[in-house]
Amino acid sequence: MTAAPGAPGPRGRGDGRRVVANISLSLDGRTSGAAGPYDMGWIVPHAVTDGARAHLARLTGATTTVLLGRLNYQGFGSYWPPVADDEAADPRDRAFARWLDDVEKVVFSGTLDAVDWRNARLAGADPVTTVRQLRRTPGGDIAILASSGVIRALLAADEVDRLSITLCPEVVGGGARLLDDGLPASSWRLVDATPTESGALCLLHDRVRR
């Protein structure tokens, strides 16, 4: 199943900004392996395909604000900025690195006192309060990039409008899960399902609110 390229889908509540949660998951629902939050080598083969890059480009084309937890802020901030000027890197990765450098980044952390990545700022409130404030401001989509704790908090408050998932054909067998028991029940509509060359499946689900 493939939606029309660039199909926008429903916006956020009312005419507000859409909140999109983007993450890679294993078949057993893991966001990382048993060795901890940086045990993510199983994701790499599925993140560098043409299909995965096209899926990410679709997300970035509509997004003007990115939400990051501390781990991903530090991980992305150490990896992506040098890629922007790396002539040996894939041009699509360079384009993503430049976009990530330019986009507004809101960082959630209980331990950082400051952030020094360009166009980044520490959030002054929790993820739910911050998203509700951002919805009332002009701009494009608000995307959470791989920060599972932020995604879970927003799912619990029904503040996610779209789930953008790269489902990797891997059974990890241990590690953190995205969807814990206790989240409120919710319904979602599949709007796109595109397989990649590695066998991963790029999925878009939009929240159905009645």
Walk me through this protein's architecture.
The protein is α/β, with parallel strands linked by helices. The chain has one domain (19-31, 45-171, 186-208): Dihydrofolate Reductase, subunit A. The protein contains 6 helices and 8 strands, in the order E-H-H-E-H-H-E-E-H-E-H-E-E-E. The chain has helices at residues 44-47, 50-60, 70-83, 91-102, 127-135, 148-156, and strands spanning 19-25, 63-69, 104-108, 120-122, 141-145, 162-167, 187-195, 201-208. The chain has an 8-stranded mixed beta sheet, sandwiched between helices. The longest helix has 14 residues, at 70-83. The two termini are 24 Å apart.
Structural key phrases:
Dihydrofolate Reductase, subunit A; 24% strand; alpha/beta; disordered N terminus; 210 residues; eight-stranded mixed β-sheet
Number of helices: 6
Total count of strands: 8
Low-confidence stretches: 1-10
Oligomer: single chain
